[in-house]
Amino acid sequence: MLVPQNFEAKIGFATLRELLEQLCLSALGRQHVANMQFITQHEQLSKLLAQTDEFRQLLAGGSEFPGAYYFDVMVHLKRASLPGAYLDAAAFYEVKMSLRTIRAALTFFTHAPENLYPHLRLLGIGIQADRNLLAAMDKVVDDEGLVRDDASPLLRQIRQELIQRQGQLRKQIASVLRHAKSEGWIASDLEPTIRGGRLVLPVVAEHKRRVRGLIHDESASGQTVFIEPTEVFELNNDIKDLENAYQRELIRILTALTDQLRPHLPDLRKAYGYLGLLDFIRAKARLARELDAQLPELSSRPLIRWRGVRHPVLALTFKEQNKAAGKDGEKREVVPLDIELTPEQRMLVISGPNAGGKSVSLKTVGLVQYMLQCGLLIPCDDYSEAGMFEDILLDIGDEQSLENDLSTYSSHLLAMKQFVTVANKKSLVLIDEFGTGTEPSLGGAIAEAVLEQLNQARAFGVITTHYTNLKNFAEKTDGFVNGAMRYDPERLQPLYRLEIGKPGSSFAIEIARKIGLPRQLVE
Questions:
Q1: Quick one: 344 and 457 in the same domain?
Q2: What is the pLDDT of residue 19?
Q3: How far apart are CA 430 and CA 378, in angstroms?
Q4: pLDDT at 10 exceeding the cut of 80
Q5: Which of 38, 114, 143, 251 has the fewest Cβ atoms nearer than 10 Å?
């Protein structure tokens, strides 16, 4: 279970999903991104993570994996399934080139050492990319997407006759054109053009009776008429007949090729599904490389033991900013966190000054755990271990509802009501600025009661707060631990480092003194 309904938007995962879509090469790959969801089955998640990690290693090793012609051909296959229908040359080009990519991918994994990419290799089992079908398409359609002139003996013959007649036509009409220009019937800068599929001359309207032939059209101004000279009637007719014959033979060839394709449709659908899946996994691997992400040791139990974990969206944002700043510009880096939630230390209560990184730390936990259970590698250091949760329950930000006349605090209480109802030993609870929004003594007391209930449910979680009573509760309660966001009171600057084991301070007095608030007010 994920709470609230707009969990992805609240935690920042929508940004990663959009980026993944951009990294895909195909519509099928993007569909996989759209279908990506929170996974609670260990075996399924382990397989998906292994696939992504193998592709990450593949890219890191510099291997040349087929990276072109990831066309979406499902619409072509659907059309080909209709009796009597045929695919045009452009459709066959996409089917052919994609099938060639599929064969290249299968060959890549087949020829790789057996100990490399075992999970990716398994994806290709049962995938058929028929060599004879590929050869048949290649015989008809070239690598530019055009039907070959020699796709059939008759097509070649018609094509040769067309070329011959067109040459005769150009020669004949050039003769008429020269004479007409010499007489001033056609402007010297004009050339023959096409009207109604036939070659015509642009004749000055007042001289239209001088050129014997058939008028096909006139210009918008009426000053030019387009005449087909009588000398080229027969040649134009021959060319039109040959073009019609060419088109009939073309359709016959494409229809026959479509008929040859049709029995392979089930295998082709499966093969192109395989290509879309590879595209999706490749996009996840590319994202992992952007984030310097890796595969932690995966446990089926609820557990977080991350070393050097970074907020992925912040990391990408800083990376772009650093690139824009150039070599001499100021560089920003995400401060990594060490986070540990175990059965013995299930709840982390983070305190510290405002804008010191408490909320970012909480969001990092939620976002990284969610991306992991969506099958993505996570930005952490070596020796990290990650478990699985069945629920992630998030309460963060202002959920005030004008429609339901709920205050911010009321919306928080509704969230707490749901949390204490559903939370269990496989839940991850994330609550930002716990207890705020009402009178501190009451808000703190209610928050402590909620924590006690969550503790009885054996839930895991990260809580951020300023309240002393919650820090004290964490200090004396088994399964809880305090955490502090480090702060430099001399420079009034947050250090964004999380220190586990002791509560943090808001540094209100120190900050007041530093900024020069009157001494009598501070004391």
A1: yes
A2: 96
A3: 19
A4: yes
A5: 114
